[in-house]
Amino acid sequence: MAKKILLPLFALLVLYLGIGLVIRFFASDETRIRWLVAEMEEAYNAGRPGSCVGPLAKAWRHEGYELDREMLLGALFQAAREREKETRQLRSKVDVDEDAVEVVVNGEHATLSTRAVFWRLRAGSWEQSWHLRIQADLVDGEEGWKIVKSRHEDLAGTHLGR
Fold first, then answer.
1. Rounded to whole angstroms, how far apart are CA atoms 130 and 156?
2. Which of 6, 35, 56, 151 could pair with 60 as two cysteines, CB 3.0-4.6 Å apart?
């Protein structure tokens, strides 16, 4: 009896995983880059700094600042440690505007532009602390798409307004 139940469940699981692999395999470069952005947003909001910087190339630089991958990782670790004392909830989060994501792919190079809003938990409520436009240059290499350079424009607030 257990075999009769487990076999269809196993077949369903294999089908589900197979479809997921096919979708990932045939996804366009633009879709893959959009997934990178969504994964970075999710990682930041979950307090996983390593996953957040995963899509950045080892030599990534943020224009206009002396910010490299290692320095960003340190800042993200600090943000991940900042939690509410009672609930252990993160004190900051980011929302990336999926509708504002623009990706232009040209062979093994691509550009990305989007808007993001950072929020800060203060006295039990979320307040917008920084709204910015982010632009990035990407390269498709052996490990897939990696962000090699980025820059931003402040639209409201500042990253220093923590």
1. 6
2. 56
CB neighbours of residue 55 within 10 Å: 21
Q: How far is CA 51 from CA 22, 28, 33, 48, 67, in A?
A: 24, 22, 15, 6, 18
Tens of pLDDT, residue by residue, the chain (162 residues) = 566 666 566 555 555 555 544 455 557 888 999 999 999 999 999 999 989 998 999 999 998 887 888 988 998 888 888 888 888 888 999 999 888 899 999 999 999 999 999 999 887 889 999 999 999 999 998 889 999 999 988 888 766 544
Q: Can you tell me the distance from the alpha carbon of 25 to that of 84, in angstroms, rounded to the nearest whole number? A: 41
Q: What CATH number does domain 28-157 carry, 3.40.50.720, 3.10.450.50, 2.60.40.150, 1.10.1740.10? A: 3.10.450.50
